[in-house]
Please model this.
Amino acid sequence: MKPATFEYHRAYTPDEVVELLDELGEDAKILAGGQSLAPMMNFRLARPSALIDVNTVVGLDYIRREGDQLCVGAMTRHRTVETSTDADVQDGFALLPRAARWIGHYPIRTRGTVGGSIAHSDPTAEWCILARLYDADVVVQGPEGRRTVPSEGWFTGFLSTSIGPSEMVVETRFSRPRPYGALTEYARRRGDFAIAASAVAFDVVDGRCQDVSIVLGGVATEPLRLPEAEAAVEGSVPEDQTWAEAARIAAAAIKKSSDPQDDDRYRRHLVDTLTRRAFDEALVTGPTS
Ligand SMILES: Cc1cc2nc3c(=O)[nH]c(=O)nc-3n(C[C@H](O)[C@H](O)[C@H](O)COP(=O)(O)OP(=O)(O)OC[C@H]3O[C@@H](n4cnc5c(N)ncnc54)[C@H](O)[C@@H]3O)c2cc1C
Model:
């Protein structure tokens, strides 16, 4: 199918994007990599009256370290993160390049952007899961300037965020670097969005797990952080028994779906397996700093 007709605009700076969003109103949409928006327009699930192409915006394609935060510009392509061997990334955030490999197929990763994924906010998207895992801040620019939204308050439901009508995502700041991390997922076909995903990050100090985060993808309307499972691992010895207890709590956190097509038992089983596998993989991959 072809999309409904739309106006096309091109912007060169974030200021221009915000001005255009303000001028064109709520029906206008930003076009970044187009890997989610274009299919939605082709299926007429989205019918924006105007597109603002941000591929010409200069200065939003970067990965840089600011203290403990890894700052990723909105127009940074998935593939740029995937291929990064930068010491700033490897030091505490080495999971990011590894997790990027799970995103779709090669052409999708070369076009899709980190900012687009964070804005689109699919609950299975790797960047959205990692944003919660690493307590990221999302930086948005609007008519009043820039503001920072903690990822905890960013995701507000399925494909829904707390972005304002004339705002654009300019940066995601991943925080809390940890030496151990892994993301595992299961999809029926390679390159598909996952049916379920589990991501973990932690440190090991004096033989005990510390600073633990666990996030599930694909099991709720937004990435699901699991404080109870995290508490079960915190202070424990990094071993199978610890992972099994965290996995049990993670699986139990999955609510019964109202969709009769959705098999909760299967999803719980997947989450249990994926969570144990993520902890195992994190240990095998080893410390990154
Ligand atoms: C076959 C297929 C498989 C895929 N598999 C995966 C997968 O496994 N994992 C995964 O994470 N993704 C997957 N994707 C989606 C892909 O990663 C997209 O690139 C990503 O979701 C959106 O990024 P984009 O740059 O393409 O954004 P676009 O498609 O251009 O935009 C998406 C939405 O975000 C808005 N937007 C974009 N940029 C900004 C911004 N800076 N500020 C505010 N709003 C903005 C747009 O207006 C639009 O509403 C898949 C896509 C396809 C087609």
The two ends are 49 Å apart (CA to CA). The longest strand covers residues 196-205. The pocket of flavin-adenine dinucleotide is lined by residues 29-37, 39, 74, 102-104, 108, 112-113, 115-117, 119-120, 125-126, 168-169, 191, 193 (CB under 6 Å).
